[in-house]
Amino acid sequence: MKMYADQARTLVLIVLAIILGACADSRLNNPYPQEEGDQAVLYESFSERPKHLDPAVAYSSNEYAFIAQIYEPPFQYHYLKRPYELTPLTATGMPEIEYLNARGDKLASTANDSDIAYTDYIIEIQPGIRYQPHPILAKNAQGDYLYHHLTAAQIDQLGTLQDLSESGSRELVAEDYVYQIKRLAHPKIQSPIAEMMKNYIVGFDEFSKQVADKQKFEIKDIPMEGVTALDRYQYRIRIKGKYPQFKFWLAMPFFAPMPWEADVFYEQPGLDDKNITLDWYPIGTGPYFLAENNPNRRMILLKNPLFHLETYPSEGEPGDKEKGLLAAAGKPLPFIDKVVYMLEKETIPYWNKFLQGYYDASGIASDNFDQAIQFTGSGAATLTEAMREKGIQLETAVTTSIFYLGFNMLDATVGGDSEKARKLRQAIAIAVDYEEYIAIFANGRGVAAQGLIPPGIYGYAEGKDGVNPYVYDWKDGKAQRKSIEVARRLMAEAGYPGGIDPKTQQALILYFDTTSVSIDDRPRMNWYRKQFEKLGIKLVIRGTDYNRFQQKMRAGNAQIFFWGWNADYPDPENFFFLLYGPNAKVAHGGENAGNYQNPEFDRLFEQMRNMENGEQRYEIIQQLQELVRRDAPWVFGFHPKSFSLYHGWYKNLKPNLMANNQLKYTRIDTTARAEKRAAWNKPVFWPLLLAIVVFMLLLIPAVLAYRRRVRETIQ
After folding, report:
1. Which of 32, 305, 388, 429 has its CA 20 to 30 A from that of 39?
2. pTM of the entire structure?
3. Measured at the alpha carbon of residue 382, what is the angle toward residues 654 and 329, in degrees to the nearest 5?
4. How do residues 272-296 score in pLDDT, each as one tens digit?
5. Torsion angles phi and psi, residue 511, rounded to 5
């Protein structure tokens, strides 16, 4: 019996020792290595593996979250200045722009647009910029590439790129930018902007046809007429006509450099079967390189040891200095040494880890919205007391996007330019209450649109001047949606009094084509039905899969639809072109999804799109806004509003809706983070101690009973 008692005591002592030892580390639930606690490491999450890390192909936000930190186009958006302003990144300055006539003669900068046949963009890059260390650039003592001619046996032994032990680097040269533009044209790469660039870059289409049967790396020495390296650090892009917005494309990863060695290496037979591809192992000159790509668990970016000198901005907007946004002015970038992206598919564990301090930033899911955000009497969003007590920061920004309810202008009922159809569309625009939609379905995260242009884009008008007078009145210093009675009068003037179709003497039937067919989508569809019911209209929801929906849009068989657009670049041209006649989807396969046609709009658009920003351009933009507000080819829905949470130790925080490379500006106060984590994650041992005491109390009767049984057996 003594043996069992000793064992029980020993067990208790062991448990107590474990507890006491654990007290030395108050972060037993820390999911990261202890040595990272005081390092400049940023912790982020991702929910979906980025499909493409090749900048010629990648075009989604989850892909840009990585590649924009790795690759460097020649230009970028200033981190602090608004309106958004392009600045040099790898370039020595902004591009030199020259205009030429059809004979190739140079023209003055004041030349008429009709005389400009070509525009040259001459770009000079900084010398001394080097690529990150990478096996594709590794060479032997003789200067030969080590891994460009791997045998089948060598490839068979590879598991990942890291199995190649040597790495190398070389200087960035102008030819690398030229090579990347050639890659955009290669049919095998299938760049999403290839069709668009055919319309602009001279010789792009011809080059694409010429190299259709070539391997990627074989295009290096095949010339493209409109893209030329002038010397080691200077290259020229020639485009057709005048297109000032082309400079914005030069700030996108599509136009980042690519060493020709990448395609030579990755096209070796057998590497693709092992996921050793450019989509898996990128190479760039940016502040970070992808050190680990394990999309089933985590992805890790590390600071590029060869990153060229770039410093934090020394100027910004008024008020930036007072907010501490210029405290790091002139200091070398980046501030973060390591970025860990953990796979998180479920919102609840992700949210809990953020509250524990194990993620530095977080979005706000609908399930957590009320826990994080509250609205004041004036409708302003603020943090809840629980969030403020943790020192969490809220950053909101109206995105450069628009969601809208579109009418097919080819439709016999809702389309066309007749006064009858126009008043029907205007009545619907009043009835569909997007302020209510934002409150119900977006947790207040949006701004009802007054026209085509979102806030932050040149030409957007504030206050009374920016109100859509066909849908809103300006009252008490704010826009107020017109009453439903105004919409009903418009219905009567359109020939549908009380919503009755004179042809059938029954409620007018309209059709809403959508891909929203799941159970979760039903509340929104019912909401739309109720909006149309205000006018006596019966709205029939025609749900379908995405491919069928696209076919209906291309054929012009949809009547009413819901669509959206996010700015590629911060210029009104990138929004007004969505209603430009020659971009009509049915006739031309363009992005004018509703097939709107208005000769006056098209004339003004063509005049506005190539103008420099100024008073004249601004006035034309307002005229364009007036036309589309009156014609109502869309029910201007809303501009989404992003809500993001950041812990107090997250520094240099300013939303930038155009830039994707903000990571290098971020700084983490690691001392403050360590202190907060320790305070928020103190282990609670009393339940375990209580369980041990209960166990011992329960064990005593069993021990006594056992001892009695032993004595009885002996007797």
Report:
1. 388
2. 0.84
3. 20
4. 999 999 999 999 999 999 999 998 8
5. -120, 130
